[in-house]
Each structure stands twice: as C-alpha cells, then as structure tokens.
Amino acid sequence: MIKAEITDKELLKHLDSIHKDEMTIFVMADGQVRGAFLNGTRLVNQMRANHNLGILETYILGQAELCAALMIPTMKGREHLTLRYETNGPAVGFGVEADSTGYVRGHLLQNPIPVDKPLESWDLAPFFGEGTLSVSRMGEGMKTPQTGVTPIVYKNISQDLACYFEQSEQIHTAFNTSIQFDSQGRVTGAGGMFLQVMPKAGGKSSVKTEQVENELENRSEESEKLLIRVENAFKAMPSIGKWFSDGGDMEDVVYGLFREFKPSVVLNRDIIFDCPCSTEYYAQQIKHLPPAELEDIIQRDPEPLEIICHNCGSVYKITKDMLK
C-alpha cells in the first residue's frame, strides 16, 4: 500500500497527544462474556487520507472498518473476513475486510455519496435502503469462503451486524462504534466496542433428575440476570469517539464500566489500516491476462498504466517494460 500523507499540522499535533491506536481484548463475568475495545482514531484518519473522503463518506466507511476490526477476536487461527453491506439507498453500501494479522481495508460502493440537503443528524438510515449484509470467512486451508447473509433491518451498521450474529450464528453480540469530528471536520477520535456471550460449555444429557433440572433452571435465570446487567453497563458507555478525542485511556473504560463483572484483559494488539497491494502484485495480475489481450494493452494503452486499488486508494504506475 502507498500510505497517503496526512498534512494537517493541527490534526497531526492532536494525534500525537492522544492514546495510540490499539485493541484491548478482555473476558468478564466468569468467562461468560468476551469483549474488545478499540481505539481506531489513526486508522480512520489514514483511511480517509488514502481514499480522499468527505465527512459523510468518512463516517460511513469509518464505522464499517471499525466494526470489521472488532470482529478480529472472533477469528480462529489464520483467517480473513469480508463484511459487505449492499442497499438500494443513496449510499449503496460498502465492502470492508479484516485479517487476523491485524490489518483492515475497504471501500465505499458509492463515492461521493449524493446529498440533496445539509446533514441534520448522524442518523444514517436515510442513506441506507433495503438490502443485505453478508459476512464471508476464509480460514487457513479453506478452498472457498464460508458466507452468511441476513437482511438489513435497522439501517444501522452496528445494529445490523449484531442482528447478523443473532440470526446467522445464534450468538448474542453487541457493537458500538463512534467517530468524533471537530468544528473543522477533522476526525479527532474514533473507536468501538464489541461484546459477545460465550457459548455454554458442556454437553447435553438425555436423562435429567428433577434436582438437576431445577439447578440448571436456576443457573439459567442467574445467567440471564447477569447478562442484562452487562447489557445495561454497555448501554451506559459514553461516546467512544469523544472519549479518545479527549485523551481517554483504554483500561479506564474496561475496568471502570464493567468493574462489577471483574474483567480481565487477555491481550492488547495493534490494528491498522493497511493493504497488501503493491506495484508488483498488479503487474503480475495484468501479465496473467490472455496473451492477445495483454499485447493489445501494451500496444494501445498509454505508458505508464495507472492502476487504483479500490480497497485502499493507492495509485500504481505500471510501465510497459514490467509487462514484457
């Protein structure tokens, strides 16, 4: 990837003054719930610079990439994930990818997004219509991706993704993403949180005594009450974008917001906006075209060929000598 330079000195000064981009992965409630808390301020700024996005476009694609990043803890081993949101609304949708190595990339299906009047709120429902949300996972050794598709219900990326997990994977999940802009339209804070109820361990017995059934019922009721309290704590979270914009710390939220549930941090890891594309990659892709088509490109098209990576906005110059 060719990393676009961020030239706004005020923005660079602000980025230097706040907590670095990082994802904190944790468990709590005696292992019943896992979560991830992400500071993605630099990720969203780099994404914006590379794609040269406006405010609305940054808000939509930024939230999509934060959600994709928050799904990295759900990956098993070496895995690659694609999240696609397709609608019949003005925004049309997006395609974003996350990799277990920690990089995130993606693009809008419509850029710029047509707007017929000034934005009155950050509600994205008017820009999303009916459509589908799909999640494709490609694990190590797999020949074809495993894909799940659900209808768009809420026209809200976080809520529709939670709905996907509920319907497609039967797992209670919650997402919260936030992007903070200053009065000049700069992204001064961006991040998100993910919570997921862990599947219950243990097998099912075909024979249960009345005492065992009563114990299981009591445990289930206690578990439900616990999860309701976790959900209420999650809903009480302040604006994540503003939290990071104001220089807030990662662990203050994890250990403060969920202190009742005794959270334990499992891992801290870097998450970045990045793409494995390169000049050599695109030159090889062109060279794999049928010989007649390749020769026609060499003879007809101007030199150098200009290739734009739709996933990261990088522009590559491919000379004719590289194709011979």
Structure description:
It is built from 9 helices and 13 strands. The chain is globular, with a radius of gyration of 22 Å. The longest helix is centred in the C-terminal third of the chain and has 26 residues, at 210-235. It has 324 residues and is of the alpha+beta class. Strand 1 and strand 2 (33-39) form a beta hairpin. Strands 7-6-3-4-5-11 form a 6-stranded mixed sheet. The two termini are 24 Å apart.
Total of DSSP H or I helical runs spanning 4+ residues: 9
Amino-to-carboxy terminus distance = 24 Å
Order of helices and strands, N to C? HEEHHEEEEEHEEHHHEEHHEE
Structural class: alpha+beta
Would you count the extended β strands for me?
13
- DSSP strand content: 25-35%
Say what oligomer this is: single chain
**Which stretches of 5+ consecutive residues score pLDDT under 50?**
201-207
